[in-house]
Design goal:
The protein is built from 6 helices and 2 strands, in the order αααββααα. The chain is elongated. It has a domain at 36-141. The model is unreliable at 26-33 (pLDDT under 50). The chain has a two-stranded antiparallel ribbon. With 189 residues, the chain is mostly helical.
């Protein structure tokens, strides 16, 4: 498939609609959403799932249709962590002897980890977990206009009567749930 990768509906909504084209509505979750990790995941990948999945689901970036891609992400991240640990212990290169003398070669684990990094980057972009996607989301959310004031239940002024006076001290709104720092948590041992 050519062209840009499609973004999740929630990411598109948070970024606004600069082209003023009609946006499709976000898909609804299936009732009884299975939030636990798939049974086939290794232990390290399951730990990553249990740490990230609730947060992504709360931010509405993880849906039931994303479980296959997200389980691959968790498994790739766990494998990447194991390979990184191995490379720290054994080094990124090794020496081999041949007819031409001693040659320094790259370990196969280094090449596998490099491939995993590109897969992880594409999956992070899909879930809005890359730093650029996160920055765009935060920028759009900070520029979002406040919600309009709703009238009372039967058209009365009850909603307007409870509005604070201009003399009253303003209370800052509660901070929105932020995806910043989500990937900075220690989930690789």
């Amino acid at each position: 498939m050519k062209g840009r990768k499609p973004k999740p509906a929630e990411v598109r909504e948070a970024q606004g609609n600069p082209g003023h084209r009609p946006l499709s509505t976000a898909a609804h979750d299936v009732p009884g959403l299975k939030a636990s990790a798939p049974k086939g995941l290794p232990v390290a990948a399951r730990r990553i799932w249990e740490e990230l999945a609730p947060e992504l689901a709360r931010m509405k970036l993880l849906r039931s249709t994303d479980f296959g891609a997200f389980s691959r992400y968790c498994e790739h991240l766990a494998r990447w962590g194991a390979l990184t640990k191995d490379l720290r212990k054994n080094g990124e290169t090794y020496t081999s002897k041949s007819a031409h003398g001693e040659l320094e070669r790259v370990r196969p684990a280094f090449l596998v980890r490099d491939r995993l990094e590109s897969r992880l980057e594409s999956l992070e972009d899909r879930f809005g977990l890359s730093p650029s996607a996160r920055q765009q989301l935060l920028q759009r959310l900070s520029m979002a206009p406040p919600l309009p004031q709703q009238p009372g239940l039967f058209g009365d002024d009850a909603a307007q009567q409870s509005a604070p006076s201009p003399d009253a001290p303003t209370i800052p709104p509660a901070p929105a749930a932020s995806p910043v720092g989500l990937l900075n948590r220690r989930h690789l041992n």
